[in-house]
TrEMBL record:
PROSITE patterns: GATASE_TYPE_2
GO biological process: 'de novo' IMP biosynthetic process; purine nucleobase biosynthetic process
Pathway where this protein functions: Purine metabolism; IMP biosynthesis via de novo pathway; N(1)-(5-phospho-D-ribosyl)glycinamide from 5-phospho-alpha-D-ribose 1-diphosphate: step 1/2
Organism whose genome encodes this protein: Candidatus Gottesmanbacteria bacterium GW2011_GWA2_42_18
Primary gene name: purF
Protein name per the record: Amidophosphoribosyltransferase
Length: 473
């Protein structure tokens, strides 16, 4: 995909996963609409696999959900179990071979896996898979084969025995011919929720997907929990054991990754962002005429910021929501317009005004610099930036595709230097303690590595997205 702004000036979404066990329902179409609501978690590729108890069929390709699936191909996916996936690559490049679900069919055993996260020891695990002809360079295929070769006759036994070998983040929805499985790493880095639809069960990355398909939210899958769903309902298979593991949910899910209408750890994401804006206003007040957001992830925080200081909230940037979701390369003169392709300025609203611009984060700073320049050219008297998270100084190794550390502007510049680079009149970030307070979570239950550099697991700082290319057969 192309982006109208610098493609490196962003923290990329991860992946979205979905699963359903529902005899008598059109599970492929239900999966399609669930994936549509999880599109924000990955836009590189999409796939659905369906089992009728005898055969497992799938459709996987590069592109958005709406371009991969249609009435004709979905009608061929008949069955009572479906799992689906939206992909943004964290290990393995953006190729059709790396799209998911990953499907293994060996010695009459069939297993399909959809994965959200990143296995940081995938290279070591891949080297142990001797005599295996892998077709992808994704860590998900390594995970699937590791499960296949684990001890045990049944898939539930293999999952329980293999899972302790995985280090890193994994929220998994998987299926065999007759059963649906869901399990989550013992640290609980990435979200995974359970729901109920017409008496049957569904699993999804976020609760927003449940609402889209009319399912009721039951609860979150607990960190380390392994679940099997069959004709008798939910069977809890036990907990994954990992030395020293404790809950470390990704704090950045609240900042940017999740949809505002999702529940994470019993907290509505919109409410967390609203509170972060209020706390930011208390930490860094400013006199201004207008508070605005860089849509969309900054909107809830901007409303909170405005309400706390009693400053009017308004829109100053209108987002073209589709220009960044195309595979068509624009002509050179259009490409040179940069952020102007992505945003239109409401010039009459900002002319002569002191504007507070609220956003979720600053990564490389190049896009923010262009936005500030564009607003000032449109007549804004002052631009004050307020960022509703701390400076992002460290890359993520647990399922979010952040740039290398040397590309993160906050890793090499002070806040004053960032402000000077962006040419804003002022720049303030929310403190880490403020963001944790807004999340309403216990500090020791969160992963704050991208802000603090404190990783819950030892990581290789030279980790590369293409790390598995040399281990593929």
């Amino acid at each position: 995909m192309i982006s109208s702004s610098d493609p490196k000036d962003a923290i990329r979404d991860k992946c979205g996963v979905f699963g359903i066990y529902a005899p008598g329902e059109d599970v492929a179409k239900i999966a399609y609409f669930a994936l549509h609501s999880l599109q924000h978690r990955g836009q590189e590729g999409a796939g659905i696999a369906v089992s009728d108890g005898i055969k497992l069929r799938s459709i996987r390709n590069l592109g958005l959900v709406t371009s991969v699936f249609n009435e004709q191909n979905l009608s061929k996916l008949k069955g009572f179990i479906a799992i689906g996936h939206n992909r943004y690559s964290t290990t393995g490049g953006n190729t059709k071979e790396n799209t998911q679900p990953v499907i293994l069919s060996l010695k009459h055993k069939v297993f399909a896996v959809s994965h959200n996260g990143n296995i940081i020891n995938s290279e070591e695990l891949a080297k142990k898979l001797t005599n295996v002809k892998r077709i992808s360079t994704s860590d998900t295929e390594v995970l699937a084969y590791t499960i296949y070769y684990a001890s045990g006759e049944k898939w539930n036994e293999k999952i329980i025995n293999a899972a302790p070998l995985f280090k890193g983040a994994y929220s998994i929805v998987a299926c065999s011919k007759k059963r649906l499985y869901a399990f989550r790493d013992p640290w609980g880095f990435r979200p995974l929720v359970l729901g109920k639809l017409n008496g049957y069960h569904v699993v999804a990355s976020e609760s927003c997907a449940l609402e889209t398909i009319g399912a009721d939210f039951i609860r979150e899958v607990e960190p380390g929990e392994v679940i099997e769903i069959n004709r008798n309902g939910i069977v809890n298979l036990g907990k994954i054991k990992a030395a020293g593991a404790s809950k470390k949910f990704c704090l950045f899910e609240y900042v940017y990754l999740a949809r505002p209408d999702s529940l994470l750890n019993q907290q509505l994401v919109h409410s967390v962002r609203f509170r972060s804006g209020q706390l930011l206003a208390k930490e860094a007040p400013i006199k201004a005429d207008l508070v605005a957001a860089i849509p969309d992830s900054g909107t809830s925080a901007a409303i909170g910021f405005a309400s706390e200081l009693g400053i009017p909230y308004g829109e100053v940037l209108i987002k073209n929501r589709y220009i960044g979701r195309t595979f068509i390369q624009p002509e050179q003169h259009i490409r040179e317009l940069g952020v102007q392709i992505k945003f239109n300025v409401l010039t009459k609203i900002i002319a002569g005004k002191r504007v507070v611009l609220v956003d979720d984060s600053i990564v490389r700073g190049t896009t923010m610099k262009k936005i500030v320049e564009m607003l000032k050219k449109s007549g804004a008297r002052e631009i004050h930036l307020r960022i509703c998270s701390p400076p992002v100084r460290w890359p993520c190794y647990f399922g979010v595709d952040t740039p290398n550390r040397h590309d993160l502007i906050a890793a090499k510049k002070s806040v004053a230097q960032i402000r000077e680079f962006i040419k804003a009149d002022s720049l303030k970030y929310l403190s880490l303690s403020g963001l944790i307070e807004a999340s309403a979570q216990k500090q020791d239950s969160l992963c704050t590595a991208c802000f603090s550099g404190r990783y819950p697991l030892p990581v290789k700082h030279n980790f590369r997205k293409n790390i598995l290319e040399n281990t593929a057969s």
